[in-house]
User: Which sequence fits this backbone?
């Protein structure tokens, strides 16, 4: 097929076409105000005009830093209409991190909400950005976005883009070193949407988005999928368990995406038992396996969990566990979706048989184009055959279901045995004195490495190494038991909430 006849799967064209098909459908509801698809399309066209007038051309980068807000999605689609690249920034970043990402991506125009403008102002003198837009109010050196929108006519339509053109650069919060910008193309987003629809598609009446949109999970599990389908997105600025329960009942929510912790907080809320949850088809969860008691709590309310595994680099779904299998394949992350493949390889990149642990590799049209300005990191992550090496350790059982064990970088090798910290941590977490725990490898003259547990304790509680070993010894082989115990007040985390084990190793070695 010649390129002239290729189907345009650009995000800009798709949302404008959706608005033509269902102009009066509810598109985004935010803090009591609802936009129809027609109103959303008008905002996107005018947003594209504002960006274009300010000098944004095809391939230029536009950044957004702030809590969840309809403007996030409007700017994303406006960039796609221009062939520009959208760069969402984590709102938990520090000033040096904002400076690094803004300059690494070469952001031309940066939008911020009222809560993040002061942070950006601290870095302004060192940023390459040429234009600053305030999405709510305005401030010194900030243009008012709303005033700018009132002075323009909307663009006529969307620029044609190729499937391989970059739509977003999403920075991964590397647990070591500086973050890397994953280049996700229009094709990546389209094929993730197709994979999801052919996997478990429960978006019927409305979806609720309270996970951060700057994360691939918050953005691309149900949010963009729903808008493409003409389904309402009820958008929350941030997660609040009580408000989520109120809005599930108010808007007849059929699905939402979240981390297990979010669903746990909802289940522990006073209003959980009295809230009508009958509209929910299933809830989609990622980031960690769902504990069985939580599956049972929601199961008693007729709600099933659809679990999945994915990364920013895979846009995100690499595997999906259908909700009907939640209690049958406990602990599994599911199977690869229709248009993606998975395999497990050893350290020589040779495929391993079912049941053997190795690195999880993913291949498919959902795998990123590469890392922005990092050909070295791209070559390290994507091999010559197009397989993306995740850095996660797992195995595939004889029925083709993926089980995750840990990160390659975190694996401990003690006396020739491979020890997966996540396995040890899951046992230690059950100790009544432990609030949080991280397991790291420490040098051992005898074994090469041995296991150390770094714990945050319940206030006023005591714990010694012997007690901990006795507790864990019932469920773990002796070589997996901690031989050292360290207490801390807080585990160091990166802006995405992941424990930074390299900091713990520096601290205790």
Assistant:
């Amino acid at each position: 097929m010649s390129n002239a006849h290729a189907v345009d799967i650009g995000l800009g064209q798709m949302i404008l076409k959706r608005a033509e098909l269902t102009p009066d459908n509810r598109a985004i509801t935010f803090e009591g105000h609802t936009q129809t698809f027609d109103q959303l399309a008008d905002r996107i066209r005018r947003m594209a005009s504002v960006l274009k007038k300010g000098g944004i051309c095809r391939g230029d980068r536009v950044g957004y830093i702030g809590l969840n807000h309809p403007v996030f999605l409007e700017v994303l689609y406006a960039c796609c209409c221009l062939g520009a690249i959208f760069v969402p920034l984590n709102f938990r970043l520090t000033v040096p991190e904002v400076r690094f990402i803004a300059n690494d991506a070469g952001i031309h125009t940066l939008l911020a909400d009222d809560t993040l403008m002061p942070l950006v102002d601290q870095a302004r003198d060192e940023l390459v950005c040429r234009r600053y837009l305030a999405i709510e109010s305005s401030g010194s050196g900030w243009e008012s976005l709303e005033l700018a929108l009132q002075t323009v006519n909307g663009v006529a339509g969307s620029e044609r883009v190729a499937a391989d053109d970059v739509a977003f650069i999403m920075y991964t919060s590397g647990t070591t070193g500086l973050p890397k910008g994953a280049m996700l193309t229009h094709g990546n987003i389209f094929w993730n949407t197709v994979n999801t629809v052919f996997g478990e598609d429960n978006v019927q009446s409305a979806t609720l988005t309270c996970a951060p949109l700057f994360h691939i999970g918050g953005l691309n599990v149900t949010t963009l999928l729903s808008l493409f389908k003409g389904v309402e997105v009820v958008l929350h600025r941030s997660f609040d368990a009580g408000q989520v329960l109120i809005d599930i009942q108010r808007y007849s929510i059929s699905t939402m995406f979240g981390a297990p912790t979010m669903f746990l907080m909802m289940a522990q809320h006073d209003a959980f038992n009295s809230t009508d949850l009958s509209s929910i088809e299933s809830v989609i969860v990622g980031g960690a396996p769902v504990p069985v008691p939580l599956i049972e709590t929601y199961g008693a309310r007729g709600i099933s969990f659809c679990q999945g595994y994915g990364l920013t680099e895979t846009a995100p779904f690499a595997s999906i566990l259908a909700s009907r299998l939640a209690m049958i394949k406990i602990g599994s992350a599911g199977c690869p979706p229709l248009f993606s493949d998975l395999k497990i390889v050893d350290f020589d990149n040779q495929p391993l048989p079912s049941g053997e642990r190795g690195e999880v590799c993913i291949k498919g049209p959902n795998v990123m184009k590469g890392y922005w300005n990092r050909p070295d990191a791209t070559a390290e992550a994507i091999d010559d055959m197009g397989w993306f090496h995740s850095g996660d350790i797992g195995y595939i059982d004889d029925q083709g279901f993926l089980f995750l064990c840990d990160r390659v970088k975190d694996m401990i090798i003690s006396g020739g045995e491979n020890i997966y910290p996540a396995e040890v941590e899951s046992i230690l977490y059950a100790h009544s004195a432990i609030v949080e725990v991280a397991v790291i490898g420490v040098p051992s003259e005898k074994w090469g490495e041995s296991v150390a547990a770094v714990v945050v304790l319940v206030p006023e509680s005591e714990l010694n190494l012997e007690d901990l070993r006795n507790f864990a010894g019932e469920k773990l082989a002796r070589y997996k038991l901690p031989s050292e115990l360290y207490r801390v007040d807080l585990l160091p985390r990166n802006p995405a909430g992941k424990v930074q084990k390299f900091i713990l190793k520096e601290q205790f070695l």
